[in-house]
Design a protein that fits this description.
This protein has about 240 residues and is an all-alpha fold. About 65% of the residues lie in helices and about 0% in strands.
């Protein structure tokens, strides 16, 4: 029933304007959708966010739409409707904050899932090999609406953008931390980003690629800190059980 609603709603947008059509889609679910509609409400909001960030730099490219499809899975029978929704939403960036707020409400109390959505958006924004300043600002604002901290945002961003920032920022730890504290922090991050741990917390499989990139950035930062301290990294640290 919920997917049928999406099919009918998207079909109806062919007859009306873009903004009213998208507003109707969002408004139809409100902020507390019925259980059977949660997946569709989430899909609408994430599709809109991904589509609109593709337009943040002024041009929505096919490679960005392809990157989104690789990250976010929908039933084959619904792909055409989701693509139509993406096409509509990618015409401008207006209203993206409302969709970010809806995702935040749908994922209330689930920060790991919010981070996974943010990683999906980073995949789309960086698909053309460049993160435009307007895309960067868009992502930072989405993270803010999600309730993520600046350090959490920077940690995700590090997986997609190479900056000359401190590896201590990536691990969200003070440069004054002891070797023992840094190692413990690294182990905690590895554990929380391990695919098995993410799946057990309900992170959709399509979002795991972003988490893997983030984990790679965390490992690189840890190795950089150890190198700076004249130590050797443990190459195969597995999360403790």
């Amino acid at each position: 029933m919920a997917w049928q609603f999406l099919k009918n709603a998207v079909a109806a947008t062919y007859e009306g304007g873009l903004r009213p059509a998208l507003d109707r889609l969002r408004g139809a679910f409100g902020f507390e959708p019925a259980h059977g509609q949660c997946r569709v409400a989430f899909t609408i909001a994430v599709v809109a966010l991904a589509a609109k960030i593709s337009k943040a730099d002024g041009v929505s490219l096919p490679i960005e739409a392809q990157a989104f499809e690789r990250q976010f899975s929908v039933p084959p029978s619904e792909q055409a409707h989701v693509r139509r929704l993406y096409e509509l939403a990618s015409q401008d960036v207006a209203g993206y904050e409302a969709y970010a707020a809806q995702v935040a409400r749908l994922l209330e109390g689930q920060p790991d899932l919010k981070i996974s959505v943010l990683e999906c958006l980073f995949h789309v924004a960086s698909a053309d090999g460049v993160l435009h300043p307007d895309e960067d600002s868009y992502l930072a604002r989405v993270a803010e609406i999600f309730g993520l901290t600046t350090k959490e945002f920077r940690c995700v961003r590090r997986g997609f953008v190479i900056d000359a920032d401190s590896p201590y920022d990536v691990l969200n730890i003070s440069p004054a931390a002891s070797d023992k504290e840094i190692k413990a922090r690294y182990r905690d991050l590895v554990k929380s980003h391990h695919p098995d741990a993410l799946i057990s917390m309900g992170v959709p499989p399509e979002f795991l690629a972003g988490a893997e990139r983030r984990l790679s950035a965390i490992t690189s930062a840890y190795e950089a800190i150890l190198a700076d301290r004249g130590q050797r990294a443990e190459r195969a640290l597995e999360p403790s059980t």
